[in-house]
């Protein structure tokens, strides 16, 4: 093997996206200066965990981390997929952190991916597993991924932080050759609101108060509101008490706008402590109200996806065959902007971004990079 | 006049995302060679996101900021407010269909 040209990057910002795009584009990367200025330098345990996960689902991939963890060398291999993978996601980030990259990588594997993920299912930082099940997986449908056919997320156990204990089974099919471009600009009107409120190891009454509070807000807008309750008490409730709510607004054109919130007592996480300065314990009534407000704010912004899914939407557009994709989103989030930059750097796809002054939304157009499922072709 | 302001606005948004290289995208070759150089600058130069919301600005400029797709707001509007309710009334099927259609 000759000398490999590594793409040099600095800092651990958006590490997941960069790894995903590097894997798909087959670009080896070197990341320098990972938290080198901080008191606790180097990669965090969840980032190392993610790298191990990448190693386990792909063949011939190389991960090297230096002693202090401030430098990472990653050479992507062939995505294998396959069944019966088990990954312990650890307790520093929730399962959502790992599902986000897996969804994209799984599509371009050699075999359909089935993986069991253990850890925290719902927390306040990452999209919850409920959101993935109700919203994210349905987004793939727009890009030509057959839904219902091996695309599934089963929540077998819930786990709230700090001790987790959750267990979900994720199934992702492969795309036969490539995705199909999407013309997705009509957001429609909200016709119904669905949701799931869960509680683990606390009184079932918390679920009812969350639902009651959320409903109170929605009542002035639309009568078709149904929030399911999911009370977990014994082993299926994981190891820590917690509660949360995930809401989805469905529009007349089938767009799904989601918002979720969860609360729990996190004390054991010392590393994260600097991030969580505000008290995390919100009473259920307020939590329900906040989640509802969050959803309404997403609806107010417009666009075919909510702010959480902007990044995924852009990546999917960029991976389409050389065909024009057109999407509409609300205000661009910092994460979405960073995604656009990363896409340009790795895939060479530039979006045409135009604000739509009438609705205050943003229209994005791009020519897909023509990503093919190469791992499959090789076989 | 409206057309020109619109055009300028769209360029601004493109520039906001991709930086100044957008203005001279004459040939693809020069663009790709340039992007190598400008990559590193991207990380240090905070691209103005002032009008993209004042919240969360500091964290998005940081090279080592947290990898988190969820966009968290610390403050919420009060959705009991009548004016606010009316402002998004037409985004729902219970609102005015003709108004929402345009």
TrEMBL record, chain A:
- Is Signal one of the keywords? no
Give the Gene Ontology MF terms in alphabetical order: RNA endonuclease activity
For this UniProt record, give its keywords in alphabetical order, as a comma-separated list: Nucleus, Ribosome biogenesis
A Pfam family it matches: RTC
Name any Gene Ontology BP term.
endonucleolytic cleavage of tricistronic rRNA transcript (SSU-rRNA, 5.8S rRNA, LSU-rRNA)
Residue stretches making up the RNA 3'-terminal phosphate cyclase domain: 9-353
Q: Which InterPro entries match?
A: RNA3'-term_phos_cycl_insert, RNA3'_phos_cyclase_dom, RNA3'_phos_cyclase_dom_sf, RNA3'_term_phos_cyc, RNA3'_term_phos_cyc_type_2, RNA3'_term_phos_cycl-like_CS, RNA3'P_cycl/enolpyr_Trfase_a/b, RPTC_insert
Q: Which GO terms describe its cellular component?
A: nucleolus
Intracellular or extracellular location(s): Nucleus, Nucleolus
Q: Which residues does the UniProt record annotate as the domain RNA 3'-terminal phosphate cyclase insert? A: 186-300
Q: What is its main location?
A: nucleus
Instruction: Say which family it is in.
Output: Belongs to the RNA 3'-terminal cyclase family. Type 2 subfamily.
Protein name per Swiss-Prot or TrEMBL: Putative RNA 3'-terminal phosphate cyclase-like protein
Which taxonomic lineage does the organism of this UniProt entry have? Eukaryota, Viridiplantae, Streptophyta, Embryophyta, Tracheophyta
């Amino acid at each position: 093997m000759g000398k490999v040209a590594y793409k040099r990057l600095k800092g651990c910002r958006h590490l997941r996206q960069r790894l995903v795009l590097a894997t798909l584009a087959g670009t080896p990367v070197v990341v320098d200066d990972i938290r080198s200025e901080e008191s606790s330098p180097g990669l965090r345990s969840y980032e190392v965990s993610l790298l191990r996960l990448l190693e386990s689902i792909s063949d011939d991939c190389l991960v090297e981390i230096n002693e202090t963890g401030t430098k990472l060398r990653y050479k992507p291999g062939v995505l294998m997929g396959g069944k019966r993978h088990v990954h312990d996601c650890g307790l520093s980030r929730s399962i959502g952190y790992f599902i986000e990259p897996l969804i994209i990588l799984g599509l371009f594997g050699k075999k359909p991916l089935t993986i069991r993920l253990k850890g925290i299912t719902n927390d306040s930082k990452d999209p919850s597993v409920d959101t993935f099940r109700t919203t994210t997986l349905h987004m793939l449908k727009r890009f030509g991924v057959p839904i219902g056919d091996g695309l599934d997320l089963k929540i077998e156990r819930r786990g709230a932080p700090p001790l987790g204990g959750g267990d979900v089974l994720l199934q992702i099919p492969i795309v036969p050759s490539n995705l199909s471009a999407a013309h997705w600009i009509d957001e429609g009107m909200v016709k119904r609101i669905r949701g799931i409120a869960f509680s683990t190891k606390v009184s079932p009454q918390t679920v009812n108060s969350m639902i009651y509070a959320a409903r109170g807000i929605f009542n002035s807008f639309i009568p078709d509101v149904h929030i399911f309750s999911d009370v977990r008490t014994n082993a299926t409730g994981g190891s820590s008490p917690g509660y949360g709510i995930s809401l989805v607004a469905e529009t007349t054109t089938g767009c799904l706008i989601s918002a979720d919130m969860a609360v729990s007592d996190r004390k054991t996480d010392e590393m994260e402590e600097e991030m969580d300065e505000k008290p995390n314990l919100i009473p259920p009534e307020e939590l329900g109200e906040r989640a509802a407000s969050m959803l309404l704010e997403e609806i107010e912004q417009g666009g075919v996806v909510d702010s959480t899914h902007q990044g995924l939407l852009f990546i999917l557009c960029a991976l389409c065959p050389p065909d024009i994709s057109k999407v509409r989103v609300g205000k661009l989030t910092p994460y979405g902007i960073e995604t656009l930059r990363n896409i340009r750097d790795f895939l060479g796809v530039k979006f045409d971004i135009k604000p739509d002054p009438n609705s205050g939304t943003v229209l994005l157009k791009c020519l897909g990079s023509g990503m093919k499922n190469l791992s499959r072709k090789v076989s | 006049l409206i057309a020109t302001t619109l055009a300028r606005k769209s360029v601004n948004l493109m520039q906001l995302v991709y930086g100044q290289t957008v203005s001279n995208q004459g040939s693809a070759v020069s663009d790709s060679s340039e992007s190598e150089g400008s990559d590193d600058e991207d990380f240090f130069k905070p691209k103005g996101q002032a009008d993209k919301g004042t919240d969360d600005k500091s964290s998005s400029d940081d090279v080592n900021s947290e990898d988190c797709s969820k966009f968290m707001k610390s403050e919420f509007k009060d959705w009991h407010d009548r004016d606010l309710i009316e402002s998004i009334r037409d985004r729902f099927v219970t609102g005015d269909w003709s108004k929402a259609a345009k």
